[in-house]
UniProtKB/TrEMBL annotation:
Cofactor: pyridoxal 5'-phosphate
Pfam families, per database record: Aminotran_3 (PF00202)
PROSITE patterns: AA_TRANSFER_CLASS_3
Subunit structure comment from the entry: Homodimer.
Keywords, sorted A to Z: Cytoplasm, Isomerase, Porphyrin biosynthesis, Pyridoxal phosphate
Compartment(s) where it occurs, according to its Swiss-Prot or TrEMBL record: Cytoplasm
Enzyme class: isomerase
Gene label: hemL
Protein name: Glutamate-1-semialdehyde 2,1-aminomutase
Entries under Gene3D superfamilies matching the protein: Aspartate Aminotransferase, domain 1, Type I PLP-dependent aspartate aminotransferase-like (Major domain)
Broad class of where this protein is predominantly found: cytoplasm
SUPFAM superfamilies registered for this protein in UniProt: PLP-dependent transferases
Superkingdom assignment: Bacteria
Functional pathway: Porphyrin-containing compound metabolism; protoporphyrin-IX biosynthesis; 5-aminolevulinate from L-glutamyl-tRNA(Glu): step 2/2
Length: 427
């Protein structure tokens, strides 16, 4: 039998860190990753045959569980007609109709191949449409690995960007202004000073890449007003929240209308897909309708469109989001009760099918609070859960995801594992 350890040894010789995306490597929690042999419903099985209840869901896409027959059969049907055409295909039109119907702020959409491509393209459009160069992002928010986004705040509420990664030119990072998430006064001050130079403000409307931090009441509305006042395009990065926190995304959940929206994850049904869209007059500026260039060899791929469309069909079932939110609540309330019973300082956040766990006694609203929580304790808890067959995201700074395939029994099993894992982690 091939073991996880053997595979990781080989992988490390062949791929940087043994993986094709960094967080999979377990660097943050320590230890070695497992290698998945197959996935079905709420579960993953590794190459050694061990089963895990999965709360990562391929980092968000698998909202109906893994290997759902409706999605798989749609892909099988599509594959029979060829893998890629390089011409327009009917499924792209259906996809665009579906997205524009489900998300009223979007009149027109462009399909791409990842969330990274979607956000890179959206800020190019913002710059092209406004004739301005600066963009604003939030400390702790992740928008893929485009140069403009690999920037974090320096000290102080508003600073010019400092590249987080070697290889990002300082000149590029200088154009990215960073702000603290959930601090409207800091945003007002920044806009007072630089408002006329800012093309777009991009935000995860529920932050999901510094654990899970929902916006404070009125925060997104406040940003909307600021952007409108200063002629700045408001970009909601809904790569994670889109079709996750509500059918219409965070913009529907909070009732705030962005100028541009980016998607990924769920709209691909597990295939590599992204999209960006917005008002017609903005999207008409994209090539070939307009002068702002953006293209893709495999964009609108017929197999990926089939997977995404099948997924979008499933999530429109009546009561889907109510049930998903109820399951998520069962999990987070249950974990809170277990932690309280074990005498551990612990808090949770949750919106729809997305949740965050923090080893701290306070409710977490900010990046500073998220990073101040006890990450060493989280890491021990993570490994305790993994041992007991529950796979949480391998980092204290990632959101968790519940799918419609998670049963009440899965949640009960998770809570039982959590009791033992918390007890062991505390010691
Ligand atoms: N935006 C957000 C909010 C994300 O969470 C991610 C990925 O996790 C991205 C963008 C980048 O998407 P991708 O990994 O598909 O490039």
């Amino acid at each position: 039998m091939t073991t996880n350890h053997e595979l990781f040894q080989r992988a490390q010789q062949l791929m940087p860190g043994g993986v094709n995306s960094p967080v999979r490597a377990f660097k943050s929690v320590g230890g070695e990753p497992f290698f998945t042999a197959r996935a079905d419903g709420a579960y993953l099985w590794d190459v050694e045959g061990k089963r895990y209840i999965d709360y990562v869901g391929s980092w968000g896409p698998m909202i109906v569980g893994h290997n759902h027959p409706h999605v798989r059969e749609a892909v099988e049907r599509a594959v029979k007609n060829g893998l890629s055409y390089g011409t327009p295909c009917p499924a792209e039109v259906t996809m665009a109709e579906m997205i524009t119907r489900l998300v009223p702020s979007i009149d027109m959409v462009r399909m791409v191949n990842s969330g990274t491509e979607a956000t890179m393209s959206a800020i190019r459009l913002a710059r092209g449409a406004t004739g301005r160069n600066k963009i604003v992002k939030f400390e702790g928010c992740y928008h893929g690995h485009g140069d403009s986004f690999l920037v974090k705040a320096g000290s102080g509420a508003l600073t010019f960007g400092v590249p987080t990664s070697p290889g990002v030119p300082k000149a590029n990072a200088d154009l990215t202004l960073t702000l603290a998430y959930n601090d409207l006064d800091a945003a007002r001050a920044l806009f007072d000073e630089y408002g006329n130079d800012i093309a777009g403000l991009i935000i995860e409307p529920v932050a999901g890449n510094m654990n899970c931090i929902p916006p404070k009441e009125g925060y997104l509305q406040g940003l909307r007003e600021l952007c409108t006042k200063h002629g700045v395009l408001l970009i909601f990065d809904e790569v994670m929240t889109g079709f996750r926190v509500a059918l219409g995304g965070a913009q529907a959940h909070y009732g705030v209308t962005p100028d541009l929206t980016t998607f990924g994850k769920i709209i691909g049904g597990g295939m590599p897909v992204g999209a960006y869209g917005g008002r017609r007059e903005l999207m008409q500026q994209i090539a070939p309708a307009g002068p702002i260039y953006q293209a893709g060899t495999l964009s609108g791929n017929p197999v990926a469109m089939a997977a995404g469309l099948a997924m979008l069909e499933l999530i429109q079932a009546p009561g889907f989001y109510e049930q998903l939110a109820a399951r998520t609540r069962l999990l987070t309330d249950g974990l809170q009760a277990v932690a309280d019973g074990e005498g551990l300082a612990f808090s949770t956040n949750r919106v729809g099918g997305m949740f965050g766990l923090f080893f701290t006694g306070e409710k977490v609203d900010t990046y500073a609070q998220a990073t101040a929580a006890d990450t060493a304790l989280f890491n021990r808890f993570f490994h305790g859960m993994l041992e007991r067959g529950v796979y949480l995201a391998p980092s204290a700074f990632e959101a968790g995801f519940v799918s419609s395939a998670h049963t009440e029994q899965d949640i009960a099993d998770t809570l039982e594992a959590a009791r033992a894992a918390m007890r062991a982690a505390r010691a």
